[in-house]
Amino acid sequence: MLFSCLGVLILPFLICCECANILYVVPFTGKSHYIMLKPIGLELARRGHNVTVITGNKAEEDLPNYHQIMVEHKLIWDVLGIKRPNIFTMADISAEEFHDKILWSGGLAFTEVALQSPEVKQFLANNNSFDLVISEQFFQEATFALAHKYKAPLVLVTTYGNCMRHNILSRNPLQLATVLSEFLDVHDPTSFWGRLRNLYFTVYEFVWWKYWYLEKQEEFVRKYIPDLPQPVPSLYELQRDAALILINSHFSFEGPVAYLPNIVEVGGLHLTRSTSKLPTDLQKLLDDAKHGVVYVNFGSNVRSSEMPAEKKRAFLKVFSELKQTVFWKWEDDNLDIDAKNVVVRKWFPQKDILSHPNIKVFISHGGLIGTQEAIFHGVPLVGIPIYADQYNNLLQAEKLGFGKILQYRDINEDNLRKSLHEVLKDESFKQRAQEISARFKDRPLPALDTAMYWIEYVIRNKGADFIKNPAQELSWFANNMLDVYAFLLFVFIVSAYFVFIILRAVLGLFKTSNDRRQKVKKQ
Ligand SMILES: *[C@@H]1O[C@H](CO)[C@@H](O)[C@H](O)[C@H]1NC(C)=O
Ligand SMILES: *[C@@H]1O[C@H](CO)[C@@H](O)[C@H](O)[C@H]1NC(C)=O
What we know:
transferase; UDP-glucuronosyltransferase; seven-stranded parallel beta sheet; Rossmann fold; binds 2-acetamido-2-deoxy-beta-D-glucopyranose; six-stranded parallel beta sheet; signal
């Protein structure tokens, strides 16, 4: 149902012709995800749409047309029923293990928590209607069935970049030679072994995901989502039919990739309209840092304080020798430092810190959100990857010349000093960071507006079926031209066979006439 335009009343400068009832499903409680997802929901509301959000993080903003349905706030370790591990131990696990132990198990447990939350249950039991369902695409596939429940087009949003499963689903070219599976770390992706590993992992992930994991999500649909119109399409079909996929990347950083018109890059959208300011104490410290500031933060999940003692000592020693000020996110009260130049806080307003011109280098775990913040503000990186897409992000930063990877296992005083001093002293890192920053911002529309444009495009065009790949109508066989190749192979084999027969006959004739001639000579 479309209703009269609130947007015209609230924000007269916005032209909003068709304000829609939008359901925005972002139940995952992870903080870094919410940093990217929150601006989408809020901006839709600011533009006059009636937005209902199923979320694990409450927004403080109080807009009359922004309704929040709260998911019980549980951390992944609680739902998995295990003690929170030291995240640094994940630096060495394989992509397969990461999917099996964390993403798939965690995803299933989280989906169940979300669908069983009292507010969500209440909401699902009511009669609502929506023109559009937008959902995060992060291992909570059962919620995609809400698009079917409300007979609305589905838009997917990912907080990471390219998604291999969705390339397969939407029939986007896979480009396995140049595009890595999102959570696979490969040291030399375009080498023979790198490409083989990528192919292997893509097949492994897809098969387990489709035939094992998605089946479990289907059970949640049957169990927790009431009043579904029959017949219910499979979750696989629902994702394949998604109208639009917004991905958190931009070719200026990730490199160019071929995308269908319904896969749109919106990387960096949380930076588009940032108006927040630094707290005065940090502002003063930054302004006063004559030699600049080294900023250290391993993100919301990884805690510096959990580092083993000898690695902690290496950091402290190297930091205490610097003339720069050091800002270090440290999560407990047990750090005894005598170095005057080290400022420790449990939390830093990161994107505002990175925007300060005195920041010299960001020592980071390479999470995508933080990496984009560094790119946006032209800050070089020393990256210590731990899990998921972090290694790939940092590999890209290293390749583009504004970052340096230091593997977690290699951290000691010498290696840390060497990497840090290289990035601090070699001017080219800063220069490259600024060049990439300019490219990252050079777009026809800011990222958040791009997201808004395409979401509203789908609303205007009633699901915009015409921007989906027509290859979806074809079988897997036909889409990959296998029938045609098989036919050509057949024609080739048959022709080769005939050529062989003819040649043999001709040679045979030649041989017998030769033999005859020799017989005649002998006589
Ligand atoms: C907006 O959404 C809320 C909550 O989902 C719903 O109760 C309300 O009727 C909607 N408003 C309009 C004008 O459709
Ligand atoms: C929802 O609507 C259906 C039919 O339109 C009605 O039978 C049902 O009682 C309604 N449920 C609620 C909770 O209002």
